Amino acid sequence: MKLSIETLAANGGFVARKPVEKNINWQHEGQEFMATVNVLPLSYVTAKSDIQAVHAQGDVMAARIAHCIVGDDGAPVFTVEDVIGTAAEERGPLSAELTNELLRVISDVSGLGKRLANSTTKMKSGTSSSSTASVAGRSRKRKSASATPST
Predict the structure, then answer these.
(1) If 0-12 CB within 10 Å is exposed, 13-18 middle and 19+ buried, where does residue 50 land?
(2) Which residue among 42, 59, 106, 113 has the highest number of C-beta atoms inside a 10 angstrom radius?
């Protein structure tokens, strides 16, 4: 495929700004909770947000949650401060269980960790898939430490 705007548009090169609805479950202090969230898939905008958070010595995971978890109108549900617990002292940060569940659905919607069916490279017959670039020299065979000398 020749790289162009048209071929990218036809082959999944762009991410729609349409959130995906997901159900989440988490526990807190022995109580189980369920909610429905809208999740934006990761995109260039998320990558930029991640990089900005790193440069500002901020929290990348909090920035990712704040960017990707949105309301029905597409507006963020959380700010980074909501996630890390500095927005309102009485609330504190999101619980670990809820944080993990939000990151899980973001990964799920974005297809992280999934291999594409056609991602394997086919090789011609007789071609080895191993690289010789990192092959070390042959190891020496160790002499046995026998109690009796060999004759």
Answers:
(1) middle
(2) 106
Label residue 129 by pLDDT band (50, 70, 90): very low
Sequence-distant (6+) residues with CB within 8 A of 39 are 19, 20, 21, 22, 68, 69, 70, 105, 106, 108, 109
Average pLDDT across the chain, whole number: 80
Helix 44-55, helix 60-68: angle, nearest 10: 150
> What confidence tens digit (pLDDT) does each residue in 48-99 have?
888 888 888 888 999 999 999 999 999 999 999 999 999 998 999 999 999 9
Q: What angle do CA 34, 39, 41 make, to 5 degrees?
A: 145
Distance between CA atoms of residues 90 and 144, nearest Å = 70
Q: Tell me the two tokens of residue 115.
A: 């291999």
pTM score above 0.90? no
For position 142, what pLDDT does the model report?
A: 54
The three-class DSSP label of residue 1 is coil
Residue 38's alpha-carbon distances to 7, 16, 24, 47, 63, in angstroms, are 28, 13, 10, 19, 16
